Every structure is written in C-alpha cells, then in structure tokens.
Amino acid sequence: LEKARPEDSGGLVSLFLADKTGQDYWQDMQWAIAYATENRLRILNRMADALEIFAGLIPDEDSYLDCPHNFARIENIHGVDLIIHRKSANAAESGTLGIIPGSMATSSRIVSGLGNEDSLRSSSHGAGRQLSRSESVLKTKAKDFERQMGSVVFHRQIANQLRDEAPGAYKNLNEVMRAQ
User: Fold this and answer.
1) Which residue(s) pair with 91 in the sheet?
2) Which has fewest Cβ within 10 Å: 72, 73, 135, 158?
3) 3-state class of 158 per DSSP?
C-alpha cells in the first residue's frame, strides 16, 4: 500500500501497470487466479471420483462452471481496454453460464450472461448482505439461526458460531435477480 500513488478523485490510491510495482501486483494476481482455479479443479475432481466410487454416479464434465470471487483481468469495454477487478461480482459475457448463490438456506441460480457493457459485463456475485457480519451476530440468536436454516442439514452444535452467515443477513435472491 505504501507504494501506491494517490488518485485525483475520491482519495483512492492506485498502482499503475506502467510501473514495476503495478506489474508485480498484476503478475502476483494472475498467479493467484491460476492457483485458485487449479485448486477448485482438484477439489471438484476428487468429489467426482468419490461420487463415482461410492454412489455410482458419473458427473457431467460439460456442466463445470468456474466463477471466481475476486479477480482482475483486462477486458475491452466500449472499445477501450480496461482492467476490470471483480470483487463480489461475476463476469457475465453474453451467453456465458455463471452461478449466483443465495444464502446457506436458499437455492442458487445458474444464469446466462447478458454481456451488458454498461455493467462492465458483470452480474452480482450473490444475494448480497443486508447485515454486516457483526450486525448478524448481534441480531441473530442461535435459535433464530436454526429456524432460518429450516430443513437444511448442518452441525447444530455450532449454530452459535455460524450466526455471522445467518440466512437473514442476506438479501432476498429473487429480488436481487429481478434487479439485474
């Protein structure tokens, strides 16, 4: 952070790709993205092996979706190459499949990107929080958490420790989807 330079607007600081520090950051991020992708693939392959061995199920390889949570890449938007850093957003290229998760107690949505350049070809990463983690812990008792989870199976002995992720801390996924 001490190597970042102040921007003219909003008090933000930036690293510039023309500088060595910006290049180092970019290379490190690309390495981290590749590492995370490989990690997800290895987990998925182990789960697929377990499903095949123990349940006799063969997963459909064509159904694989990779929706990283935090990444940056260079994309051309309105004819200009921009670095798009998606934190809590999914890439939504036209026709590209993605996942928009709800909370622990709700479903997720498999979606097809619209490619809207005005939204930087992005969609929400999920339902989004309506309560911060600390607010959720303060406002959600363990018994409320268990009630919100409904019939979802989880380790009830640790319900108190899961209150920061209580389903009630998240927005209604149907409303979020309508807004997109």
Assistant:
1) 122
2) 158
3) helix
**What tokens were used for 39?**
């990690």
Nearest to 125 by CA among 174, 67, 166: 67
Determine the distance from the C-alpha atom of residue 176 to the mean position of all C-alpha atoms in its chain, rounded to a whole number. Answer: 15
- Interatomic CA distance for residues 126 and 166, integer angstroms: 14
117 CB-near residues (< 8 Å, 6+ apart)? 77, 78
Give catalytic status of residue 155 as yes or no.
no
Give the residues across from 13 on adjacent strands.
Answer: 6
Determine which one of 69, 78, 85, 125 is catalytic: 125
Please provide the DSSP assignment of the chain as one string: -TT-EE-SSTT-EE--TTSHHHHHHHHHHHHHHHHHHHHHHHHHHHHHHHHHHHH-----GGG-----SEEEEEEEETTEEEEEEEESEEE--TT-EEEE---TTS--EEEE----GGGTTEEESSS-BSS-HHHHHHH--HHHHHHHHTT----GGGGGGGGGG-GGGB--HHHHHHH-
pLDDT digits (tens, 9 = 90+) for 37-79: 999 999 999 999 999 999 999 999 888 888 887 888 899 999 9
pTM of the model: 0.75
**Strand 109-112 with 80-87, pairing:** unpaired
